[in-house]
């Protein structure tokens, strides 16, 4: 048996799989986020331990014999969080999370240093780890002086599980301290934030052994024998391992609260000015690129709240057959935009409204606006050297066939639908635990799920969609100055 632990923002998910990768069971532990000031987002690392214990206890209650047979554990986690510990492994303050924006001034200052984009391949976003440490040095100097180690959230869990200070490449690529091409800490970038390599964990690949489960925890969980803990992965890379998106050119589109277009790369292809994330993958000698839009299903949920109709009712009004764009355009920038604009201030808009613009017309425009935002991501990835010939759709929005047909037509590529199952970050983490414990071939383990169907682009509407996308592209520069 192999155990995947996924430390998310709202909870910890524990998943058991067997040697054939059949899911045996899963359980969850809950987490809350503290927001003591506007723009702040924090969690107590002790709460991660408590939630992990809750999740494992859920497995113990239902699958004690299977849990006892665990031989490998994989870790996945929310990225970018700054977990600070002193020389005695005491936590110095609550962890500053990925969605905390307090360090925007420090992020801009670091991003102005050309070494950061040159070595990391990414913009220094306020959510990344390095600017958080620069903020702490400025505003909490007594705490900064005591920092012995900076750990990412899942790697603090590893410290609790194994007693080891270890991280891996995919998560560390989101710190702004990793030389992403060399897959190694950059002493220059660390020095720019008044830190050293001694304050960083050791780096391994996500598929490699990275500690062993403490004997007291193994006994508490009823596990006998030697249990390897894998390097693991950041949450998106772990999800990619679960989805089998690990070979050059493989890609998925995630329609969740935010939207992600994720592509695996066989080489390092940075282009930070596009706001594409270029990170190490969890597998050796593999990287990935990722475009992110901030409002995907969030845009439809906003429209649902305004109209008083459920998202399912709204999309149901459009029927099954894809329609040509009406001339009404929606910009889904409800909370700013990441890729390709890196603009926290821009806001959304409907353009082209007329008396005949019904609720269904507005719904269609919302779905198309998200599809065109994902097309922006595709163009950004293409400009960075990544070719995508098809994508697999995941996330809650993928239940709408109309929306997927719109995305397929906007991108000009087929959209595959996976068979029912849980192929997320906890499953990917369990796969990494299996690889680390057995030495199995990562590519042979991280296979894609069976495809239950494919939605092809509607060729008859490709011209109309291209015209609508051209209008969409022209609107961001037109309204940019109005949003400030």
Structure description:
The protein is α/β, with parallel strands linked by helices. The chain is built from 18 helices and 24 strands. The strands form 7 sheets. Strands 1, 2, 3, 5, 13, 14 and 15 form a 7-stranded mixed sheet that branches. A 7-stranded mixed sheet has the order 18-19-17-16-22-23-24. Helix 3 packs across helix 5, helix 12 runs antiparallel to helix 14 and helix 14 crosses helix 15. The protein is globular and about 70 Å long. The termini are far apart.
The value of Rg in angstroms is 22 Å
Assembly context of the chains = single chain
For the biggest sheet, the summary is:
7 strands, mixed
| End-to-end C-alpha gap | 54 Å
Helix content: 25-40%
Coarse morphology:
globular
Tell me the fraction of residues in β-strands, as a range.
Answer: 15-25%
**Overall average pLDDT:** 95
Task: Please identify the structural class as seen in this structure.
Answer: alpha/beta
Number of helices: 18
Number of strands: 24
Q: Could you name the ranges where pLDDT drops below 50 across 5 or more consecutive residues?
A: none
